[in-house]
Amino acid sequence: MPDRPGDHWDRKVANGLAFLRRRLSGDYEVDEFGFDSELTDAVFHPLLRLLYRDWFRTEVSGIEHVPVDGPALVVGNHSGTVALDALILSAALHDKHPAHRYLRLLGADLVFRMPVVSELARKTGGTVACNPDAERLLGGGDLVGVFPEGFKGIGKLYADRYKLQRFGRGGFVSAALRTGTPIVPVAIVGGEEIYPMLADIKPLARLLKLPYFPVTPTFPWLGPLGMVPLPSKWLIEFCPPIPTAHLTDSADDPLVVFNLADQVRETIQQTLHTLLERRPDPFGP
Questions:
Q1: Would you state the pLDDT for residue 214?
Q2: CA dist 31 → 34, 107, 170, 249 (Å)
Q3: Alpha carbon of 62 to those of 96, 107, 199, 252, 266: distances in Å?
Q4: How far is it, in rounded angstroms, from Cα 44 to Cα 19?
Q5: Exposure string (b/e) for 3-19, b if CB count within 10 Å is 16 or more?
Q6: How far apart, in whole angstroms, are the C-alpha atoms of residue 225 and residue 201?
């Protein structure tokens, strides 16, 4: 029997009320890291979907390189002054992947020292970027997302856009090797233009205990309005996975770790160059 006019909205209201009842009564589950999949699906992903689909007009390619099941370490480039790229990647992967998999993001210590931000990060599946947590998630069959450039990537000047920064000591590679997990490099174009960082006021950053204090074309000049991201065109490409199962005995070998981290970094850098050629206009359709 076909739906009558209004049935669709009746179901939406009923589902919304049922959701509120579960939240108020505590009748929902979180995992050992604090991940709340129901809240992520009902609140966070719909908000991020408006950003990645409508505001940034994001195109995703290579999603077939992300495993349908089992663990994988997704390694991306970091940019944008504010780490929106991690959230956009997580939501886009979940929506575009045939199994609608969740990406468990690894974040810097600073994220988990901020009261409200820390709680939101945990609820959406994030945890501290440390090898024990990464290995536990990978050992449990999860997709784990990491951005090895850290604050050096998101805090670089616009003049250095799409030039990958140092990948640290390659801790993410050690976690993949210990668990025999494939590494999936991913290149993200678009994040560099949302808040083009023209300068970094280092004395103010030190005073506020921040890794940098950005000056962009709109911030701090426009106050809160300066936090509205510019509508750049985004391209996200997942690259073929790099297997590690044959290297599990080399997790503590610095040379193997360095070479593999360098291979991942070079793959992402070359893919960025290719994507930038496909997107000559940062604010095009």
A1: 92
A2: 5, 17, 27, 30
A3: 10, 24, 35, 31, 17
A4: 14
A5: eeeeeeeeeeeeeeeeb
A6: 20
Closest-CA residue to 271 (of 172, 203, 188): 188
Record the tokens describing residue 205, joined without a space.
Answer: 């950053």
Cα of first residue to Cα of last residue in the chain, in angstroms, is 41
Distances 270 to 88, 193, 267 between C-alpha atoms, Å:
21, 19, 5
Structure tokens at 49: 């979907």
125: left (phi over 0), alpha (psi -120 to 50) or beta: left
Model pLDDT for residues 150-182, shown as the tens digit of each residue: 889 999 999 999 999 988 777 889 999 999 999
Name which residue leads in pLDDT, 13 or 125.
Answer: 125
Reduced to 3 states, what is the DSSP secondary structure of residue 97? coil
CA dist list (Å): 105 to 85, 208, 250: 11, 25, 25
CB-CB contact of 134 with 126 (8 Å): no
pTM listed for this prediction: 0.89
Phi then psi for 18, rounded to 5 degrees? -65, -40
By the 8 A CB rule, do 41 and 91 touch? no
Q: Is the separation of the CB atoms in 172 and 144 below 8 Å?
A: no
Query: Residues with Cβ < 8 Å from 11, sequence gap 6 or more?
Result: none
* Rounded Cα–Cα distance for residues 35 and 85 (Å): 19
User: What pLDDT was estimated at residue 217?
Assistant: 93
